[in-house]
Amino acid sequence: MSNPLIDFSQPGLWLSAASIIFNPTFWNIAARQEYHNKVLTKLFRGNSQYACYGLAVTIFSLGIIRDAIYERALRTQPTHPFLETPFIHNLSYGLFLSGNVLVVSSMYALGVTGTYLGDYFGILMDAPVTSFPFNMTDAPMYHGSTLSFLGTALWSGKPAGVALTALVWGAYTVARWFEDPFTTEIYAKRERERNAGKKTT
Ligand SMILES: *[C@@H]1O[C@H](CO)[C@@H](O)[C@H](O)[C@H]1NC(C)=O
């Protein structure tokens, strides 16, 4: 058992896994509590816009903490020679860069409230965004973030990073099972209300 791919005895690995799972779980619970009980809006004295900004700052900060824990965790993990080849190393830059382009351009296209679950606060977009990067993939924020994790894993040559990236992908996939039908229904509801409004006027 010399040279394991992943050193499971490192607490940092488990802390990183926990924070990867915690973040999307937290924002889904917070957003649903807002939608059903207006919990965050009440916290911000009835101002939904500020409440959404508050959630945005919280999610953004949790993301920075999660990324820092991940990078720290990788430092104590073994490297693998296969991941240290020039090809993989060059690939890592491309993945990290394209991942960041997807994340930053989605935020730019959606704005703060669009990015950070504004729909749950009743702050709806006028129309679905179809411009770049939404013409490339349906979930550019999630895919971009996953690519950045993979880029970091390959850049540092750590198989543990690849495993944690798989967990990121899994956590986002589960998050989307909850989020996608929910937001679709929020917009469908508005559509029904608009149509009902048309009939009575
Ligand atoms: C998406 O939009 C960008 C920028 O407008 C464009 O360069 C790109 O070719 C488009 N991609 C697809 C798949 O349509």
Automatic annotation (TrEMBL):
EC numbers on record: 2.1.1.71
TM annotation in the entry: 12-30, 50-70, 90-110
Entry keyword Transmembrane: yes
UniProt topology in membrane: Multi-pass membrane protein
Gene Ontology MF: a single term: phosphatidyl-N-methylethanolamine N-methyltransferase activity
Binding-site residues, S-adenosyl-L-methionine: 97-99, 179-180
Primary location: endoplasmic reticulum
Catalytic function, reaction form: a 1,2-diacyl-sn-glycero-3-phospho-N,N-dimethylethanolamine + S-adenosyl-L-methionine = a 1,2-diacyl-sn-glycero-3-phosphocholine + S-adenosyl-L-homocysteine + H(+); a 1,2-diacyl-sn-glycero-3-phospho-N-methylethanolamine + S-adenosyl-L-methionine = a 1,2-diacyl-sn-glycero-3-phospho-N,N-dimethylethanolamine + S-adenosyl-L-homocysteine + H(+)
Similarity comment text for this entry: Belongs to the class VI-like SAM-binding methyltransferase superfamily. PEMT/PEM2 methyltransferase family.
InterPro entries linked: PEMT/MFAP, Phopholipid_MeTrfase
GO cellular component: endoplasmic reticulum membrane; mitochondrial membrane
Membrane-side (Lumenal) residue stretches: 1-10, 32-43, 114-156
Cytoplasmic side stretches: 66-92, 178-201
Gene3D superfamilies xref list: 1.20.120.1630
Pathway annotation: Lipid metabolism; Phospholipid metabolism; phosphatidylcholine biosynthesis
Highest taxon of source: Eukaryota
Name the record gives this protein: Phosphatidyl-N-methylethanolamine N-methyltransferase
Function: Catalyzes the second two steps of the methylation pathway of phosphatidylcholine biosynthesis, the SAM-dependent methylation of phosphatidylmonomethylethanolamine (PMME) to phosphatidyldimethylethanolamine (PDME) and of PDME to phosphatidylcholine (PC).
GO biological process, one term: methylation
Subcellular location as annotated: Endoplasmic reticulum membrane; Mitochondrion membrane
